[in-house]
Amino acid sequence: MVRVVGIGFKEVGKIYWFNPDPFKLNINDHVIVETIRGLELGKVVEPIKEIDESSLEHELKKVIRLATKKDIEINLVNEKKAEEAIPLIKAIISSRELDMKIVGSEYTLDASKLIIYYNAEGRVDFRELVKDLAAEFKIRIELRQIGQREGAKMIGAIGTCGREVCCKKHLREFDLVTMKMAKDQGMALSSGKITGVCGKLMCCISYENDYYVEVRKRMPNVGDIVETPSCSDCKVISVDYIREMVKTTSKDEVFENWNNSDVKRVKKNKNVEVEVNGSSSWVVGL
Fold it and tell me: What distances in angstroms separate CA 284 from CA 59, 185, 208, one per listed residue?
């Protein structure tokens, strides 16, 4: 076991573990640490605790020192400088006619390096661009390509729900989101319904996935043959996972709605395809 403290560098960013010794650190304390980018100002977001050394992704580095008021002021100046540099960076990129989109930039605490983050469909030959940027800013330049999700997290946006996107608001790390999750929840599988502003599957699809996995275990599927209080071999034509309701039809084409607790599966249909009725929350058979 090793003693660690969780440090964050963004308001809602990934948490990195550092060796806190010999400092007694509390939540919201500002500290100076060394990362692969150089000296950085971070904030304590997870208290000191012990974790299994095997769970560490990288070599554990030490907290260098507590941040001073001057460090915090310098960091604010650097943030303003980095924001003001964006238009000039875009202009230089445009002059080179490179297919890349700048999403953010930042200076290291000692202002020895300017890190520029960008999105691009493929690899970009920016060797000449780096020379142009270095000549303009008189500083070391690092260009770092990031994914669409990371780009959206840096810029921020309003989601289809009308609220700030989750990755900017509260998600420190991205969860696994799959098309199967959307299918299992009976979502309309159109890009406008299940993709976020980044063009990837919406992060919120994973939030209720565990519930749907659990409820689907105890509910019949569309196409299954079930027994109900009024029918011994009815066919399931739709299910409502939220209300846990099942709609059935008999051979006499009598349609009935049942609570899941009143339905007993007799025969399972393994090859059923389902789609969503967009006007309701029911999953219905084709």
Answer: 52, 12, 20
